[in-house]
Write a structure and sequence with these properties.
CATH architecture of the largest domain in chain A: 7 Propeller
Helix content of chain A: 25-40%
Oligomer: heterodimer
Structural class of chain B: alpha+beta
Largest interface: A-B, 35 and 29 residues
Order of helices and strands of chain B: HEHEHEEEEHH
Largest sheet of chain B: 6 strands, antiparallel
Largest sheet of chain A: 5 strands, antiparallel
Strand content of chain B: 15-25%
Number of helices of chain B: 5
Number of strands of chain B: 6
CATH class of the largest domain in chain A: Mainly Beta
Strand order of the largest sheet of chain B: 1-6-5-4-3-2
Number of strands of chain A: 16
Strand order of the largest sheet of chain A: 5-4-3-2-15
Shape of chain A: elongated
Strand content of chain A: 15-25%
């Protein structure tokens, strides 16, 4: 007569861990399956621009419709897209900090990059080598390009913008944000960029969608899966031994 | 039990997070290393006329920017270029010396897949390669399975760096 099976502590924990890990494994499995067929499913071509999602991704800047006037042009930054006179440009720039016009080009500053644009919006150059994060963009009295960085430090550069030097004289005229002209804002809002479905799924898969602690949650899921494996193997070996090496033959 | 183990293995595979947005080397460090600790001041080359056509020929599309900055000291020049792999830009640095590639370094990789192009087993293949008259590399470069678009992007940037270096060498020639 066989002894009744009693659950060991290990198997009880096996069930508990399985229940906790189940939700995360489902998320990982479904997002992983979708990402494995990303191209076939067209995930990289589908974009989402719901306002809550854009806010979550930090792309909902300047939703109030602030704009900078650069010469005869208006530059707006909406959800990471740059609009020149209401037309979306193919160049993205985060945290718009100012725009000015020189005789040769338009200069549009984000916090970490500066775009040099032709009058028609064509990209002349994207400059990432800056002396610091850009808080303001302006022109000095002798028409040099000026940027203000944290700690009230000001740097200026010539028209070619090949190097920056501390501008001790100061006196720059800073580009100031103003409310966008209504007709440009309505034209811009019709063509807002969004987050690709592929990017969203990648961030769900890695846990980054939950911010800096998200990957730790997925690490936790991995540890739980390891616990499941160990407790599962332990339980299987126990059951195998209890059944006479697992073949049920008592001879 | 075998089913459980198979499912567990499958879940572990899915757990592996794809790499994205990795900075391997800053442009400043790349330039410093490429010029023995003292990078020369930057210069710019405008992509206009014939040069713009040549750039389009090697990239397979119009260049994203109208001008590109570079650093040159004698016959040695360094170029930091961006090219889209699948959907995101790959930033790579190239050193050209005497119209041959002397160094390739992937500086930043933003794609979700294909980051293997950053490894030396791939980038070292470019060393000593020049550009033929038909804008092909003078030697074949072995690809990487699963990283086709990233490989193509690095190859195209290498060709562009050679085209640009040849142009500025001709312009700067006494």
């Amino acid at each position: 007569m066989k002894k009744p099976m009693h659950k060991s502590a290990v198997m009880i924990w096996h069930q508990r861990i399985g229940a906790v890990a189940a939700a995360l494994v489902v998320v990982l499995a479904l997002s992983g399956l979708a990402l494995n067929h990303s191209t076939a499913l067209g995930l990289d071509r589908q974009h989402l621009n719901m306002s809550w999602l854009m806010r979550w991704y930090g792309l909902a800047q300047d939703e109030t419709g602030l704009a900078y006037q650069a010469g005869e042009h208006w530059v707006m930054g909406i959800k990471g897209g740059i609009y020149l006179d209401g037309e979306l440009l193919p160049h993205r720039l985060k945290d718009l900090a100012g725009a000015v016009a020189t005789d040769q080009m338009l200069i549009v500053a984000g916090r970490n990059e500066i775009l040099l644009l032709a009058q028609d919006g064509a990209l002349i150059e994207r400059i990432a080598a800056l002396p610091g994060p850009v808080l303001q963009l302006g022109l000095t009295q002798d028409r040099r390009i000026a940027i203000a960085t944290p700690q009230e430090r000001i740097f200026s550069s010539g028209a070619e913008m090949l190097d920056w030097r501390p501008d001790v004289a100061g006196g720059a005229q800073w580009s100031q944000p103003v409310n966008s002209p209504e007709h440009l804002l309505s034209r811009a809002s019709a063509d807002l960029p969004g987050v690709s479905l592929e990017r969203l799924l990648l961030d769900v898969h890695s846990g980054r969608i939950l911010g800096q602690y998200g990957p730790w949650l997925m690490d936790g899921a991995a540890v739980l899966l390891l616990g499941l494996a160990a407790s599962g193997i332990y339980g299987w070996l126990n059951a195998r031994n209890a059944n006479g090496n697992g073949n049920g033959d008592a001879s | 039990m075998r089913t459980c183990l198979a499912l567990f293995g499958f879940a572990l595979i899915l757990l592996a997070p794809p790499a994205r947005g990795e900075v391997y080397l800053t442009p400043e460090k790349f330039l410093s290393e490429s010029f023995a600790g003292a990078a020369p001041p930057p210069k710019i080359v405008w992509l206009t006329g014939t040069l713009a056509q040549q750039a389009e020929a090697v990239l397979g599309h119009k260049a994203a920017a109208l001008r590109i900055r570079y650093w040159a000291d004698g016959a040695r020049s360094a170029w930091i270029l961006d090219e889209t792999g699948k959907t995101e830009a790959i930033t790579a640095g190239f050193v050209i010396e005497d119209q041959k590639i002397a160094r390739v370094q992937v500086l930043e990789f933003r794609e979700s897949r294909g980051s293997e192009v950053r490894h030396e087993f791939f980038t070292n293949q470019f060393i000593g390669i020049g550009l033929q008259e038909d804008f092909r590399l003078s030697e074949a470069v072995d690809g990487i399975s699963g990283a086709t678009l990233s490989v193509r992007a690095v190859e195209n940037m290498a060709k562009l760096a050679l085209v640009l270096a040849r142009h500025v060498a001709a312009v700067d020639a006494p």
